Every structure is written in structure tokens, then in C-alpha cells.
């Protein structure tokens, strides 16, 4: 007798995973709001929007210290856990059908909702690779993650030291030129190399114009301009960095699920150690990075759209620290109302993620309020707070009547090829 695959029933869901997912989903908006409301370059470089002093600098420092890359890492780990839950015991065809549907959601987010920083396409592609390692032991998965992060460290180090060393040598030559000295052909070649490297990390005037049009033109003009930006961004970043950034954390998430960490099955001492060591390592590494960024005057090697060599150490450590803290809270009788709301947000993660893009489109694009590049950095977080309030209220209300979020329901119906019950009895 063939067993027909079905979605996970509400009663079988793991509360801690839903709570962590809700926390991560809301937290991601702390960084994504910068890409929604400011030139995308401002995501990593506060000098772009003038956030180099006062309250804006404090906002930059706080967000960069506590959240930059951290919630994305945690969200990716959760995706890895989800792969284990879904892939084991289900046919490959069903799994890949689900990933292709996620890819479709991502393409809709990027090209229709105009979100250059969409993560769903990356997750869909990375998830297609993960099916082949679904049976790996936790140890093997963690070793695989280590290999991925080693590769990323090499890529980041190459970019960082290229900008640092070549930039330093170029500065010396430029000083000599300014003093009237003649330079050799070798020195001129070095200056040309530096110029090419620098411009590869800084958008051209043409790129800036296209980005502005993607937010301030008519919707049709913006679709065309945004598509150009998205395709260029993916061509440069997706195969070299983004895919591996997601894969490394997903492999960790798969291992953590198999070890019972996400489910709260380890003892309290384990989670306390996870909190202490995760927060200690993460805050020290991130704190040093933030200090040097500011002290260097936001030098290009520190604020280019490529993480610094130590970036993954800080963000992954902090993600694990936050995970341990949330599980400890879930093991108590405290903050039940908050946990329930976060769990509801987490159960509707796909709907809520795309809602971020939709609401941002209405707030920042000229077809809505037209506030792109109009708000100061700290003012963007009033928008974040408003979206949080909406989702923390709306998600429990929706799930009080329905079994799934609207897009989660569509995803399940399309995946399993048959109608799924939507309304609760």
C-alpha cells in the first residue's frame, strides 16, 4: 500500500522552530529595510546615506553589532532543518517540485515586487543541492559546513587584502603624482589595477541612475530597471558568494536538527553554554569589526559589499547564541504570549517575508508614498516597527481561523497537487 505524502499537521509542529523562525523573520527586516529604503550600497556603507555621526551612527553600530548577517544565518539554519523534516521519507520528485515552486516565489519577489535582495531564489537553488546530503550524519554535515566557510573565508580574504594592500600602494603613488613626480609604467599599471578593483566594488553613475529609476519611475519603468539590476547582482554574487553563504548555514541547521538542538531535546546546560559562548564570541568579533569600520573612516575594504574575513565567525556564533536563548525561554513558562505571536509569524514565514517586499514597495516606491532615499537611517526603523506590529497582530488572527498562511497554503496545494483544507473546523 502506497502512503500518500501529506503536509505536517499543526499538532505535529515543533514550537521552538516556529518561534525561532518568527524571531529570525522579523529580525531580517532590520537589515533589509536598508535595501528597501536607501541606495543598496548603504546596506554595508553608512557613508552613502550620511549616517556617520549622531543617532544614525549609533543605529548603524547597534544593528551591525547585533544583527548584520546574524538573522540571515539563523534563517538559513532553519531552512536546513526544514529540508531534513521534508526530505526524509519523501520522493525526490516531490522535493524538487517544492523547490521549484519556492524559486517561482523568489522570482515573483525579485521581479514583480522589485526586491533586489530577495533570498528565496538563493534558498531554492541551495535547497536543490541539499537533497543529496539529507542522509549525512551530523558530524559529516558540520565538516561540510566547515569546508564551505573555509572557501568563503578565502574569497573574503582575497577581496579584503586586495583592497587593503593594493589601495595602500596606490595611495603612495598618488601622493607622489600629486607632488609632481614622474611614475614608472609599473606604477601606472598598479594605479590602473587599483582603479579597476575599486570601481568593481562601487556602483557606476549609470548603475546609480538605474537603481533610482527602479524606485522612482513608473511601475513599468521600474520593472525593467530593477530586472537589469537583479540580473547583474545575481551574475556577480550568486555563484561566488550567496549560494555558499546559504549552504554553509543550512548544513549547520541540518546537523542541529539531527542532534535535537532545534527541538529543545538537549539539556539546559547545553543551551546555556550555547548562549554564553555564542554571544561572547559573536559580540567580541562583531564589536572589533564595528570599531575598525568607524575608526578607519569607513574605508572601502571594511564597507565593500563583501564580508570581511572574520564576518562568518561573528554572525554564526551570534546566531547560535540567539538560538540557545530562545530555546531556553521556550522551556520555561515565561513570555508565552510573545512566543505564541512569534510562532504564528514563523508559521507564516513565506507570506510574511513577501509581505515585507509588498509593504516596502508601497512605502518607498513612487507608486506609493515615494519615500525611497528620503528618510534618515534611524527613521527607517519606525517603518520596521510598524511592520512588526502588523505581522505580530495579523498572523495570530489569521491562524485563529485558518490552518496555513495564504501563500503557505498555495505552496502546499501546488506541491502535493491536490486541495488542502484551509479553514479550521
Write the layout of secondary structure elements.
Elements: H1 15-37, H2 54-66, H3 70-87, H4 92-111, H5 120-130, H6 138-178, H7 185-201, H8 205-216, H9 219-258, H10 268-295, H11 300-303, H12 311-330, H13 336-347, H14 349-364, H15 377-401, H16 406-416
Short description:
The chain is mainly α and 425 residues long. Helices cover 73% and strands 0% of the residues. Helix 3 (70-87) packs across helix 9, helix 4 crosses helix 16 and helix 13 (336-347) packs across helix 15 (377-401).
Total helices: the number is 16
The main pleated sheet reads as: none
Rg measurement, Å: 23 Å
Low-confidence stretches: none
Query: Proportion of β residues?
Result: under 5%
Distance from first to last alpha carbon: 29 Å
The portion of residues assigned to helices is: over 70%
* Number of separate strands: 0
**Mean of residue pLDDT values:** 92
Number of domains: 1
* Dominant shape: globular
Task: Label this structure with key terms.
mainly alpha, 16 helices, 425 residues, globular, 73% helix, single chain
Structure description:
This protein is mainly alpha-helical and 425 residues long. The chain has one domain (10-416). It is built from 16 helices and no strands. The protein has helices spanning 15-37, 54-66, 70-87, 92-111, 120-130, 138-178, 185-201, 205-216, 219-258, 268-295, 300-303, 311-330, 336-347, 349-364, 377-401, 406-416. Helix 1 (15-37) runs parallel beside helix 14, helix 3 (70-87) packs across helix 9 and helix 4 crosses helix 16. The longest helix is centred in the middle third of the chain and has 41 residues, at 138-178. The chain starts with 14 loop residues before the first helix and ends in a 9-residue tail after the last helix. The mean pLDDT is 92.
